[in-house]
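note to self: dont lose this again. the chain is below, predicted strucutre after it. 279 aa total, dont forget to put it in the shared folder this time
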Amino acid sequence: MPIPKSNMNFHKSFQRIVAVMTAAGLLMPSLAFAQRVDLRAGVRAPGVNDEARVQVCANIGTRLGAIETRMIDLRAKLDDRHNDREQKLEERRGERRDKVTDLRDDAEERRAKSDTRLETLADTDAEKAAIVEFQADVRAAVDARRAAYDAANAAFRKGVDAAVTARRTDAEASVTAFRIAIKAAVEKARADCAAGKDAETIRADFAAAVKAAKEKFAADRKALDRVGMQVRALAETRKAAHVKAMTDFRAAMEAARVDLKAAFEVEEETETETETESE
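---
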């Protein structure tokens, strides 16, 4: 199974979110006044603290609305991308199920024709009984192989779904935590504004809070489980189960053929002995 592109898409989305926060003015770039106030450098002209604080505090309120709107839009796009991938995954699974069904139907048809040809070879009741037993052994071997394949495939799908769901949950949690941290930084800045703190202090505290939120967000993103690695491990487990199922099937079929051949050979030897005695 091809490795999902969810890792790459999530990384791009997270980078876009961080870019949005910066573009929306989270670090509160320089403001232009009659006398310039450089908030990034933390430098202001003497005697303009009140004006700077008013401007900084007004900026915080307008920035928060823009940030929330863009974050909501990005979250909606992430959800749409997730839903689209899940829909395509289900479509591919449906196509595979249909293909397997067709292959099994074709195999059943060929097996029925083979049974018909085999039954024409039976001349005695013993040979007919041997053929019936052979057909039952074949049926059991086929059913066992299919059951093993189906179980392995179901376990693989369940594992993939669990991995994708877990990563999506963790990714959404990291985005939510980031939003909460940014909102908390804004609320603190507002409280500092209401308390009449110095503009430089407000800016420095806000910038430090945003920086910490971004660093934690990046760390959370890096810690997310890689779905591709889990899918490869699940695929190996499924492959091993398929190999074992096929090995068991071939062994069962060979045993059934040996028993059938032996039954016909015994019957031929008996007929030969009877003819010799009659002579």
